[in-house]
Design a protein that fits this description.
This protein is of the alpha/beta class. 25% of the residues lie in helices and 28% in strands. The strands form 3 sheets. A 9-stranded mixed β-sheet has the order 2-1-3-4-9-8-7-5-6, with helices on both faces. Strands 12-14-13 form a 3-stranded antiparallel β-sheet, covered by helices on one side. The protein has a two-stranded parallel sheet with strand order 10-11.
């Protein structure tokens, strides 16, 4: 099982950037809502708590039980995650006199800290919070400060628990990737050998294991998410996959054709007959689009002249209009 870092999302608008920075370091990660913590097995190398638009002092602030995480796995709190660690374990978080938003200069207090190894003594970071940590929890030590934030980064002694009140994942934190690399590669011990290609291999293997000989129906909009899901499922289970193209009315005609055909220099070509057991083509595609699609489907035959109307969650019956097509025969797995 591939090693990974778990990111627990408290609603920050830049949580996805944390994942992106880790992938740039060739580290695999998975993002989960704070209230849907997955089972943490031996493949988990560390956990990151994201930021949040909420305040830890709010009555309905996001809460999480860290009993099975803190002290057991390397842990990094970012912004809200840092303040939550302080607030939850005996420190004090107060409202700032003025919201701290924008660039700040970070001064490294402990250059020997594993989190700040190789980070410049003075570097730019990005702040975005209305609260500040006024007092650290017992056993915590300051490892970096800014002019207005004394506890900008801290470490809890005896644990691999770290926290930063700035955002290392954003572009404006000039050495943020270095800090995340110190956590993922140094503290967590990730090998840094993950690639998108290995993700395809492990995902296809996982899908085969989960699905077995079951049949799968996939609603396909022609967008990136559903198309990638379709390609991966096709690699995993082949003819046991049935894809239905659903025109939700939000895509342009050209996008519908490209989504089905994936032709052109910018994308690898995927023959429609290799991917679909059933394809419904909207009347919006037009005659030329229908001919292009038909040409790409070597084993396809027209059913009849009609059109389709689709709702997001419901396929309506076709009425008179332009052609729709259906696969004439099944193909073997992996075709």
């Amino acid at each position: 099982m591939a090693e990974k870092i778990i990111i627990l999302d408290f609603g920050s608008q830049v949580t996805q950037l944390i994942g992106r920075r880790l992938r740039e370091l060739n580290v695999y990660c998975e993002i989960y809502p704070f209230n849907k913590v997955p089972a943490l097995d031996s493949s988990v190398k560390g956990v990151i708590l994201s930021g949040s638009p909420c305040s830890v002092r709010d009555k309905n602030a996001p809460q999480i039980d860290l009993g099975g995480i803190k002290g057991r796995f390397p842990l990094l709190g970012i912004c809200y995650g840092a303040q939550y660690l302080a607030h939850k374990f005996g420190g004090e978080v107060l409202g700032s006199l003025a919201r701290e938003y924008g660039r700040a200069m970070l001064d490294v207090v402990d250059p020997e800290s594993p989190l700040l190894k190789g980070v410049s003594a003075h570097s730019q970071v990005w702040m975005s919070h209305g609260d500040t940590i006024a007092r650290l929890p017992e056993g915590a030590e300051v490892i970096a400060s800014t002019e207005s934030v004394t506890n900008a980064a801290f470490h809890i002694k005896g644990e691999q628990t770290y926290a930063v009140q700035f955002h290392p994942e954003v572009f404006h934190t000039t050495e943020g990737t270095k800090i995340l690399g110190n956590f993922a590669l140094g503290i967590c011990g990730c090998k840094g050998d993950w690639t998108p290609a290995s993700f395809i291999e492990t995902t296809v293997a996982s899908l085969r294991e989960q699905i077995g000989d079951e049949k799968v129906i996939l609603g396909l909009s022609g967008g990136v998410d559903s198309t990638v899901a379709g390609v991966l499922l096709n690699k995993a289970i082949g003819h046991n996959l049935t894809c239905i193209f659903v025109n939700n009315g939000l895509r342009k005609t050209a996008h519908i054709v490209v989504g089905l055909d994936l032709g052109g220099d910018a994308h690898p070509r995927v023959e429609a007959s290799n991917l679909y057991d059933a394809i419904w083509v909207s009347a919006n595609c037009g005659d030329e689009a229908a001919r292009r699609l038909m040409a790409s489907m070597k084993n396809a035959t027209p059913l009849r002249s009609s059109s389709t109307r689709c709702a997001t969650n419901k396929m309506m019956r076709p009425s008179a209009g332009r052609p729709i097509f259906r696969r004439a025969s099944r193909r073997s797995a992996g075709a």
